[in-house]
Task: structure prediction
Amino acid sequence: MKESYLQDLKDIKEIMNRSSRFISLSGLSGISAGIFALIGAYWAYVTVYDGQDYMGYRVALLSWNVIFQLLIIALVTITLGIGSGIYFTTRESKKRNEKIWDAQTKRLLINFAIPMITGGILCLILLVKGYVGVIAPLTLIFYGLALVNASKYTLPEVRSLGMLEVILGLFATYFIGYGLLFWAIGFGALHIIYGVSMHLKYKS
Result:
């Protein structure tokens, strides 16, 4: 009898959790986003240091042409990352027989979008003003804040990932000039680690 009550309580808790949180996030989406980010970081690295001796002293020459190419790289990387995330998350939702678009999804996206859009506009303003060095740290910080803000409506691991992104962004702010390296760690390595842990824990 006692086991039956405990199982009922567990079922009720699971139902309440499903009704208040979006739980169909896929670990594979994190892994794919991380891989695309690493490819994008390498592409950006080759673009910034184009024509310079790999083994010698290198200087990052950020002309407007190079900055435009970096924006294209960022746009392609973000598009591929979001696209793979939508694909794997939709697949996971179908597997769980859950709706991909409901009230929880809307709350999740709205709370994620507010810090991201704010940070994106701020970065564009700073880019136009010529403050290129702070762009990479700020993208990490605002992305981390967006994850923390959205984590109330999804799995708790998202909050941990967000906090790590914020901390990494603060380090990147102190070590100006290593933005590309911190970018690769934050958007690449951390996403892959997060995705693998989510995949192992939730089998998603």
Notes: The longest helix spans residues 64-95. The chain has a mean pLDDT of 85.
